[in-house]
Amino acid sequence: MLRFTVLPRLRWLTHRIVWLSVLMFSALANSAPLKVAFIYVHPAGESGYSYTHDQARKYVEDVFGDKIEVTVVDSVPDGADVERVLMQLARAGHKLIFPTSFGYMNAVQKVARRYPKVIFEHASGYKQARNVGTYFDRIYEGRYLSGVIAGHMSKSKQAGYVAAYPIPEVIRGINAFTLGMRSVIPDATVNVVWVNSWYDPGKEREAADSLIQQGADVLAQHTNSPASIQAAEAAGVYAVGYHSDMSRFGKNAHLTAPMHLWNDFYVKRINQVLDGSWKPESVWAGFSENMTTLAPLNPAIPPKVVAHIESLKEKIKAGAFHPFTGPVLDQQGETRVPAGTVMNDDALSKMDFYVEGVQGKLPR
Amino acid sequence: MHLELRPVPDYKWQYLSPLLATMLTLLSGWLLFAWLTDAPGHALYVFFIAGISDAFGLSEWLLKATPMLLCAYGLAICYRASLWNIGAEGQLLMGALVGSAVALEFLDSESSLAIPSVILAGMTGGALWALLAGLLKFRFNTSEILTTIMLNYIAMNLLQWAVYGPLKDPGGFNFPESALFSEATLLPVLWPDTRLHVGFLFTCVVMPLTWLLLAKSFVGFQIQVAGQDPKAAVMAGYPVKRLGYVVLLISGALAGLAGAVEVIGPLGQLVPTVSPGYGYSAIIIALLGRLHPVGITLAGLLVSLLFMGAELSQIEMGLSSAIASLFQGLLLFFFLACDVLIRYRIRFSPGTVTPQPNH
């Protein structure tokens, strides 16, 4: 008798227990937020490269709310330290990490091999892996447009460019700006000063001042601080910012700024990790995917120039125009991109020459 | 309340002062974290203990301390000779640069000579860079404080030139970094599954050697006499100049060793950012450790712990890195400030005190 009554009950009970635990586990799995981490090379501050990532970090925190838990580690220098920070983040249970400096690349590769279940999205690098994706924006599209604006606003036909290091990314920016400016003033020239630092307000200011003294009436920059904008404001000339909207550092001088916009990309990637569809990719997107944009244009820019910029932006977005469309000549007058063709991504990513119109010799 | 010079330095404060400093740091840290977080005790735990509570943490701690300690032992020898070498950073960079240049020659090789060659090259690079400062000082009477600082900048620019030029990875999209070194060139890992490499053993060898040199050898005695009273040293017939060269060469070689160990250790390639200022931290460590090898070791471990605590407090507590550096600053301040008690004592209510008999 006993056997007949107890066994079904027991079975019912085990059934219940199994289901309950399954339910509890799935509830736990859903309620535990995804731990996401960002690593910056500088403090976020109020302008510059790390600042743009931090703005996007705030954005994704608003978008995802309780679904994610975000950690920020800033001031991590390129070099041996980042490997430890990456490992500490992985050990603390972070499942998605955004190391945002180029110099982290090889450390990311090493740590990614060690923690195959953690996903890494490395900004500005070129090495992918099974759990490492890379991303950057086609900021040169914005650079070109800022060059066009500079061409319309310059009277001395001379621009100055404060640049950090002679790597392809920076050289591409200088060339895109120059091509844009010369599309308006065919004989415009651009002088470059290398400050050999991503962030050095003192040196950037000195470089900007000396460029203005040499006759530049528009400045552009590939550095982090707003020192060039401030120098231009003080001297009464124009300047183009970089990374983020720098207009509050010089509202008369600041024409616009090519800006990174990581918001949509970060939301997309976090969603993919949440729903399990993430795959390593090498993303290089610009206006078309809203990853690059221009800061609000200075009211001093005439309406017809604004309209011109808008139409160019739409053309770039639609793929109907590319800033590096031939003929592109280098400083020696040699054709680098033949007429009618467009420079391919491989050549763009290795760029190591100045286009015609840039003054001085490229340091090697 | 005022400070009064002690008739003789009170050496028991040499040991009491770090204790007092530790207590003051913990107290002020507790106040600071109580103001910023609701778990000040946990914050202190994260800062000082969490980071080294397991094998991973311990290995990272020793790894981080290695280059700073190597530089600091050398600097201490210099400072004992009153040669104010501020140039460990530049000597380290030259060690890294010359070491990497040699390491890149072994890209396709499995030779067992690779590692010794890189290390020797690095030490030579660092030593020659320090020798430059020595020549300027002893030939042209230039202050070594200025020349070693200047040489740091020159070394940094040389390194950048090399990474952007001849040592750049041909397959690296023109980015400023060398090719990854071959396995034969990389220092073996000392502790499986960690990054702690055999370079750490150099500190274990250099520390007792420094102590032997300073405390037990005649050269060490001469060095210190030359440092404390150069005239007496000359009178005694000590080769003051030669001693100066010797200490600079030792300290340069050790900094160069640190640089070489860093590139074929955790980095595995030459990058423009070899050192986040190890050579400068080493100055603090040498002085904090009272120029004594044991003290330096403790100080180096402390500074390295602080660096790790700053990272962990961001990861675990979400504290900003500015708070971490503020706390680091507090700690260093207390440690240096408490040393005043070795030579001075605190007197309360001035003027009303009747002279006490000296005991």
UniProtKB/TrEMBL annotation, chain B:
A GO cellular component annotation in the UniProt record: plasma membrane
Lipid bilayer topology: Multi-pass membrane protein
UniProt-annotated location(s): Cell inner membrane
Chain segments annotated as transmembrane: 15-36, 43-59, 113-133, 145-164, 196-214, 243-264, 270-289, 296-315, 321-342
UniProt keyword terms in alphabetical order: Cell membrane, Membrane, Transmembrane, Transmembrane helix
UniProt cross-references to PANTHER family, sorted A to Z: ABC TRANSPORTER, PERMEASE PROTEIN, GUANOSINE ABC TRANSPORTER PERMEASE PROTEIN NUPP
Protein name (record): Sugar ABC transporter permease
Organism for this UniProt entry: Alteromonas lipolytica
